[in-house]
Amino acid sequence: MSRREQILAEMGLAPLWHLRGAEHAAEPELVTPVADPRPAPPVPIAQAVSRVAQTVLEAVSAPAATPAPRDAAAKGSGLAHMGWEELDQAVKDCRACGLCKARKQTVFGVGDREADWLFVGEGPGAEEDERGEPFVGQAGKLLDAMLGSIGLQRGQDVYIANSVKCRPPGNRTPEAGEIAACHPYLERQIELIKPRLIVALGRPAAQTLLNAEIKISSARGRVFDRHGIPVVVTYHPAYLLRNLEDKHKAWEDLCFAVDQMQALKKN
Ligand code: SF4
Predict the structure, then answer these.
(1) For the domain that residue 89 is a member of, what is the CATH number?
(2) Which of 7, 195, 211, 221 gives 148 a disulfide partner, CB atoms 3.0 to 4.6 angstroms apart?
(3) Banded pLDDT at 36 (limits 50, 70, 90)
C-alpha cells in the first residue's frame, strides 16, 4: 500500500479516491456569503462577530462572574499593531470572555506563520487544553491524515488555528459571544499570515470567518470571499469522527481546496 493509500485508509476512505478532473474543471464563481434561509439561532455567531467588527464588546455576553471585559475597540486597535509574540502574550493574558475561567492554558495556534494554507477550527478540546496546541486529540489525528491526503503536513506551509483560544467546558460549541470576543485574535493572525486560502472546519468557523449564517452542506464546493482571501468550507474532523459516512465529502472538499490553491498559484 502506498503512503497515499495508507493516509486515505486512516481517513476511512477506501477504495482509493482520486482527485477529480473534469468535474472540477468548472470552478464555481467567487461568491459572497449569503444568508441562510433557516430561522436564525437566538444569538447568531455572524451577528455577534459583526458587532465586534464594528467595535463592540457589547456583543460579548460575558457571564456575571466573568472579569470585566476590555473595550473591543481598544482591543482591536491594539492588536492591529501586534507582532506574533505580543499577540501570543495578549491571548495568554486574555480574560475577555468566560472561557478563561476553566482553561488550563490558551491554545494560540500552530504552524508556518507564512503559510499559504490556513485551517480554522472551532475551539480547543481537553487534550488541546492540556498541551496548548490545536488539534492534537483524535480529531487532530484525523486532521493530520486529511492534510496528508492532499500532500500537506502540519507546520509546513500550513497554519492551524481555532475560532476561540480557550477550551469551552465539556467541549461544547463556543457561544456566539465567546467567538465574537475572540475574533480579533483570529483576525490579527490572518493579517499576519496572509494565507492564500482558508479552509473553515465546521459551521462555527465558517460563520466566524464569513460573517454570515452558513450551513456546511450547502456551502461545500463554493468559494467565499473574506476580504480578498478565498475561503472554502468542510466538516470539522470531530464531526467526521462521529459521522463516518461524511468522510468522503470531506475528501471531496479537500480536493476542491487543492484545485483552488492550484488556480491561485497560477494567477
Ligand atoms: S476564548 Fe478568546 S476571548 Fe475568551 S478568554 Fe480565551 S482568548 Fe480571551
Answers:
(1) 3.40.470.10
(2) 7
(3) very low
- Best CA proximity match to 164, nearest among 121, 111, 217: 121
Residue nearest to atom 3 of ligand 1 (CA): 182
Find the residues whose C-beta lies inside 6 A of ligand 1. Answer: 91, 94-97, 99-100, 106, 164-166, 178, 181-182
pLDDT digits (tens, 9 = 90+) for 70-114: 344 445 568 999 999 999 999 999 999 999 999 999 999 999 999
Nine-digit cell string for 152? 500537506
In this prediction the pTM is 0.80
The residue whose CB lies within 8 Å of the most ligand 1 atoms, and thus the one to mutate among 75, 92, 128, 182, is 182
What's the one-letter identity of residue 10?
E
What is the number of domains present in the chain?
1
Task: Decide if 147 is inside a domain.
Answer: yes
Q: Is position 36 within any domain? A: no
Q: Is the peptide bond before 195 cis (omega within 30 degrees of 0)?
A: no
Taking the CA of residue 100 as reference, the ligand 1 atom at the shortest distance is 5
Q: Which residue has the higher pLDDT, 135 or 46?
A: 135
Give the Cβ contact number of residue 103 at 10 Å. Answer: 19
